[in-house]
Amino acid sequence: MATVQVKNLNKTYNPTTIPVKDISLTVEDNEFLTLLGPSGCGKSTTLRLIAGLEEPTRGQIMIGDRDVTALKPGDRNISMVFQSYALYPHMTVYENMASALRLRNMTDGEIKQRVSEASRFLDLREDLMNRKPGQLSGGQRQRVALGRALVRQPDVFLLDEPLSNLDALLRERVRAEIKQLFEKQNTPVVYVTHDQVEAMTLSTKVAVLYEGNVQQLAPPSELYSRPANQFVAGFVGSPQMNLLTLHCQGQTARLGQGKLPLPSGLAKPPRQVVLGVRPEDMRLAEESDSIRFPGEVFLVENLGMQNLLSVRLTPAEGGAAPIEVRSLLPSDLDWGGDNIELAVSPERLHWFDVESGDRLG
């Protein structure tokens, strides 16, 4: 097996177009790293640099103990699965899976064994092996693309948004298959997506990218529970985190009619701060809650097992206009009409600097 190391990777097209800015990361054996971010953040360019499909402006790419920065894609011993599947339309399933092995001058017996093992692993029935891609469903074509990658037994797997062309139900099923598939491999995986559900469910580590920079590199649970900055907080999580700019009064910040304690250890209390609170962490207030946020429900979105409530919090006397928040409550919970009182546990709050966006505390 081989570790993938990316050191100070940069790609510059011109002074105003720099999709990758000094990215460094490591993917160990048996690790599944997802590059996550919005369109144009540099995630696909980073993957193409690792694959050798693009040449870096500067930086180094190591696979195992080999410096592959200047090597052609075919000399890196990688397998790549593309968004468009990239299957040969005139070849059968068997021929598509075997094509890369023929280039290695392997014997027919060796090729047949590898293709047979991969097809059984991916549940590609024998009657499909003589069909051409045009005769397959989207999910079957995706399995063939994965099978073609598996038979090569590469040092690293690279996957570029492989589920984006599938409908929602099929995407969910194939996502589960990919997770089971790569849990049985010891090979490093680098996966690109803008879909946070894919990133959170598939990965052992996630690198959140924005404007060519890594904003945070961490396990999925840490991204969710302790986002490093305001961008990660707003990008990771569905429904999106409530991000509210609040005025501070000493060591507290006012939200509606409630006062919240600022995180301890601040050298100097700020004048303003950004509060982040996830909709699923806002709940109906109970008698034991000392901090409550009365408000008015103005929109209810039924999500099946839960309702997403949009609430205008009642401002303090003489305060500014009402602040709007969203709260995720069980669908069988009766909140008592248009008026509601919400609460949140202090340990569930996230605080960010207004100017830098970095996490406080």
From TrEMBL:
<dbReference type="InterPro" id="IPR003593">
    <property type="entry name" value="AAA+_ATPase"/>
</dbReference>
<dbReference type="InterPro" id="IPR003439">
    <property type="entry name" value="ABC_transporter-like_ATP-bd"/>
</dbReference>
<dbReference type="InterPro" id="IPR012340">
    <property type="entry name" value="NA-bd_OB-fold"/>
</dbReference>
<feature type="domain" description="ABC transporter">
    <location>
        <begin position="4"/>
        <end position="236"/>
    </location>
</feature>
<dbReference type="InterPro" id="IPR015855">
    <property type="entry name" value="ABC_transpr_MalK-like"/>
</dbReference>
<keyword id="KW-0813">Transport</keyword>
<protein>
    <submittedName>
        <fullName>ABC transporter ATP-binding protein</fullName>
    </submittedName>
</protein>
<keyword id="KW-0472">Membrane</keyword>
<dbReference type="Pfam" id="PF17912">
    <property type="entry name" value="OB_MalK"/>
</dbReference>
<dbReference type="InterPro" id="IPR047641">
    <property type="entry name" value="ABC_transpr_MalK/UgpC-like"/>
</dbReference>
<dbReference type="Pfam" id="PF00005">
    <property type="entry name" value="ABC_tran"/>
</dbReference>
<dbReference type="InterPro" id="IPR040582">
    <property type="entry name" value="OB_MalK-like"/>
</dbReference>
<dbReference type="InterPro" id="IPR017871">
    <property type="entry name" value="ABC_transporter-like_CS"/>
</dbReference>
<keyword id="KW-1278">Translocase</keyword>
<dbReference type="GO" id="GO:0005524">
    <property type="term" value="F:ATP binding"/>
</dbReference>
<dbReference type="InterPro" id="IPR008995">
    <property type="entry name" value="Mo/tungstate-bd_C_term_dom"/>
</dbReference>
<keyword id="KW-0067">ATP-binding</keyword>
<keyword id="KW-1003">Cell membrane</keyword>
<dbReference type="InterPro" id="IPR027417">
    <property type="entry name" value="P-loop_NTPase"/>
</dbReference>
<keyword id="KW-0547">Nucleotide-binding</keyword>
